[in-house]
Amino acid sequence: MIYPIVVYGHPILRKVAVEINKEYPGLSQLISDMFDTMYYSEGLGLAAPQIGKSIRLFVIDGKPAAEDEPALAEFKRAFINAHITERSGDLVPMTEGCLSIPNLREEVLRESRVRINYYDENWEYHDEAFEGYKARIIQHEYDHLDGIMFTDKVNPLRKRLIKSKLTAISKGRFEAEYKTILPGQKIK
Ligand code: CO
């Protein structure tokens, strides 16, 4: 199934999500549905809070950005109970967007390298380092689990300039090709 996407301003996006265990009901179906939802809405990543589930799970498929960075063609994963244990390298600026903030793109500084441990969809444990675009997507999705949106990280001047845009988005004044859940709307 394709889930609707929770939009900026909804309180679930600000919650710290909780870890899950292997017995989480319907986990493999949920992961598969999250991939489908991400492909349908044309995102590179999707975190569970964005579909209204406050659990520590996100999925990534970098393939659509493989033109910019060929290594992304094979970068498809589910990350369960992930922990970033190290961030290093230069702070690199890059323009980001988010399915929960339709049509808004802003530059964000992030470290160029991360080390992260997580379980995959087969409940295999991984401890890996990523850099560049992969590290970028991971950090963006991981932030969702801690209630952090990329717009929190834009510079203070830009933050003032986008404030009214964020307010408009949270009131449903945007165009999106996918279904959404606005702040105040109930998550089924
Ligand atoms: Co996002």
Description:
The protein has 188 residues and is an alpha+beta fold. It has one domain: Peptide deformylase (Peptide Deformylase, Alpha-Beta Complex), CATH 3.90.45. Helices cover 23% and strands 32% of the residues. It is built from three helices and seven strands. A five-stranded antiparallel sheet has the order 2-3-4-5-6, with helices on both faces. A hairpin with a 2-residue loop joins strand 4 and strand 5. It starts with a strand and ends in a 7-residue tail after the last strand. The mean pLDDT is 97. Cobalt (II) ion binds next to helix 2.
Architecture, CATH level 2?
Answer: Alpha-Beta Complex
Q: What's the CATH topology name?
A: Peptide Deformylase
Radius of gyration: 16 Å
Through-space gap between termini? 13 Å
Strands of the biggest beta sheet: in what spatial order?
Answer: 2-3-4-5-6
